[in-house]
Write a structure and sequence with these properties.
The protein contains nine helices and 13 strands. By secondary structure, it is α/β, with parallel strands linked by helices. Bound molecules: adenosine-5'-triphosphate and alpha-D-ribofuranose.
């Protein structure tokens, strides 16, 4: 089985369900609150483990009452937690509002995620991994150290999901084997409009020109496109489903894609596998709680072929 390391955030998601998002200055009644384990790093780790990867997580929880539940959730889904550190203070929190349309709004309080330091990312954990996945909910300095270590160690596929988006220094693009962005992130980084698959391909090609080995742009219910430095260009349509909560759609897509790729699945097939996984996730509430197992994904692919 492939070994995948996820270096990233672990959050308790405090999820408020509403009919419609409030306007600025407006006060509305919520329909109910849930406390659900999330965080982009942890979600991607869970998705990769459930999709068939052997996954180790490097991140941090705090010393608060949320920490045990966050660790328990990772363990329950098969993610190794030996490298999840305890840092003083609170765990990461995400204040999420989910509207009846299935869309969400998220405000982060970084907590212990902000204390995942470059020196916490030891070469011994990264060496020999088939893939390492990063996001933007821990300090950039730590991400950069991991990217540089993976390049130095060799043989590790570095996957970067720069969410929430921030500029990528020019010299870091060359350290990224697969850059995964949604429409907003693709626009923010490339400076190009991204509303259609054609525009997404143009943005992906621009990011490949800057040095990324390959770029995948996810387009929500419009699917996903892929471009790489060898000139390959692919499109994977999204499944037609009724979305109730799109939280962690992107995380599910990335985890499933990387697990499939690390187990030898060609990229076009891995994109369909990932799209099937994400389509299941959006039909269920929550982040980690919504992510399907490999068996469910395979069954869904067979039913829809
Ligand atoms: P999030 O931040 O909510 O985790 P994201 O913005 O990173 O998501 P999206 O582009 O919205 O990522 O979605 C990722 C993938 O999930 C899409 O490429 C698609 O395959 C699937 N997906 C998302 N929304 C839907 C939907 N409404 N119906 C079917 N599939 C969807
Ligand atoms: O991508 C979804 C995740 O973003 C949520 O689980 C929340 O914790 C935020 O990090």
């Amino acid at each position: 089985m492939s070994r995948i390391v996820v270096v990233g955030s672990i959050n308790m998601d405090i999820v408020n369900q509403v009919e419609k998002f409030p306007l600025p200055g407006e006060t509305i009644h919520g329909k109910g609150v849930d406390y659900l384990p999330g965080g982009k790093g942890a979600n991607q780790a869970v998705a990769a483990a459930l999709a068939g990867g052997q996954v180790e997580m490097l991140g941090a929880v705090g010393e608060d009452s949320f920490a045990p539940a966050l660790l328990e959730s990772l363990g329950r889904y098969g993610v190794g937690t030996k490298h999840v550190l305890r840092k003083p203070g609170t765990s990461g929190l995400a204040f999420i509002t989910v509207a009846d349309s299935g869309e969400n709004q998220i405000i982060l309080a970084e907590g212990s995620n902000g204390q995942v330091r470059p020196e916490d990312a030891d070469d011994s954990l990264l060496a020999g991994a088939q893939a390492v996945i990063l996001q933007n909910e821990i300090p950039w300095e730590t991400n950069l150290r991991v990217m540089q270590a993976c390049r130095r160690l060799g043989g590790v596929r570095l996957v970067y999901n720069p969410a929430p988006v921030r500029p990528i220094p020019e010299e870091a693009y060359g350290l990224i084997d697969l850059l995964v962005v949604n429409e907003t992130e693709a626009e923010g980084l490339s400076g190009l409009p991204v509303t259609t698959a054609e525009e997404a391909v143009a943005a992906a090609e621009e990011l490949v020109r800057r040095g990324a080995g390959s770029v995948l742009v996810t387009l929500g219910s419009k699917g996903a496109v892929y471009s790489d430095a060898e000139g390959e260009s692919l499109f994977a349509p999204a499944r037609k489903v009724r979305a109730v909560d799109t939280t962690a759609a992107g995380d599910t897509f990335i985890g499933a894609l990387v697990a499939a790729g690390s187990n030898g699945m060609p990229i076009a097939e891995a994109m369909s596998f990932a799209a099937a996984a994400a389509a299941i996730a959006v039909t269920r509430p929550g982040a980690q709680a919504s992510i399907p197992s490999r068996e469910e994904i395979v069954r869904s692919l067979a039913e829809n072929s």
